[in-house]
Amino acid sequence: MSEEISPTQRIILDATLATLAKHKVSGTRMRLIAKKAGMSQGNLHYYFPKKVELFMAVVDDILDHFVHARAHVLKDEELGAEKKLAIFFDQMKEILLGESHRMFVFYDFWVQGTRDRQIRAKIQYMYATWRSDIADVVQKGVREGFFDHTYANLIPSIMVSLMEGAALQYLIDEEAIDLDQYFARARDAVFSMLRAPVPSS
C-alpha cells in the first residue's frame, strides 16, 4: 500500500492474509476475516467497505513486501554486483522457508489475475519491478567491468524464471526440491553467463 497504514489496518491485512491462506480467494468471506481479526464485521467494513477493496489492499501489501524486503540491501554501495544478485535468490529461499503462506496467497491472486484486469496490472507491475531491480544490478556490474554484456538483457527474465520455477515446485511438493542446492546451482548458472571474458593480450 502506498499510504501509511494504521495498526488496525495492519491487523486486518494480516488477518486477511491468514484467512486467504486457509480458505483461498474463492472461500474467503468478510465474517471469517473479522473473526480472525478479533473485531465485528461492522468494524471491518468501516475500514474496508467492500471485499474487493480489502483484497486489492492485500495484493498491494504482498507485492510491497516482496519489493521492499530487498530494497535496503540493494542500496548498499559496499556490496558488489554478484553479492547483490545472490540476494534475490536468498530472498526467495527465505520466503519459501518462512513465509510460504504469503506465496500461496500470491499465486491464488495470480490465477485471479488471468481474469481480473486490476489484479493482473498489479502483478505485472511487481514482475516489472523485480526485473528492473535485477537489471539495475546487472548493468552496474557491466559498467564496472565485472559482468560481460552479452546476455545482460536476458538475465532479469532468466532469474525470475529460475526463482518462480523453484517456488512452484516447492509449494506443491516440498520434498521434490532441495532449495539450498537448487539456488546455489542457479546462482552458478547465472554468474557463468555474466562472467566478463578475460581480455586478449
CATH architecture grouping of the largest domain: Orthogonal Bundle
> How many β-strand runs?
0
Main sheet?
none
CATH topology of the largest domain: Tetracycline Repressor, domain 2
Can you give the mean pLDDT?
92
Distance between the termini: 54 Å
* Poorly predicted ranges: none
* CATH class division of the largest domain: Mainly Alpha
Count up the helices: 10
Given helix and strand content, the structural type is mainly alpha
Give the fraction of residues assigned to helices: over 70%
Using the CA coordinates, give the radius of gyration: 19 Å
Query: What pattern of helices and strands is seen along the backbone?
Result: HHHHHHHHHH
Describe the global form. Answer: elongated
Output the CATH homologous superfamily of the largest domain: Tetracycline Repressor, domain 2
What is the total number of structural domains?
Answer: 2
Strand portion, in percent?
under 5%
Task: Describe the model.
The chain is mostly helical. The chain folds into 2 domains: 1-57, Orthogonal Bundle (Arc Repressor Mutant, subunit A); 69-194, Orthogonal Bundle (Tetracycline Repressor, domain 2), CATH 1.10.357. The chain contains 10 helices and no strands. Helix 1 packs across helix 7. The radius of gyration is 19 Å and the shape is elongated. The chain starts with 6 loop residues before the first helix and ends in a 7-residue tail after the last helix.
List the helices and strands and how they pair.
Blueprint: H1 7-27, H2 30-37, H3 41-47, H4 51-68, H5 71-74, H6 81-98, H7 100-113, H8 117-143, H9 155-172, H10 179-194
Helix pairs in contact: 1-2, 1-4, 1-7, 2-3, 4-8, 6-7, 6-8, 6-9, 6-10, 7-8, 8-9, 9-10
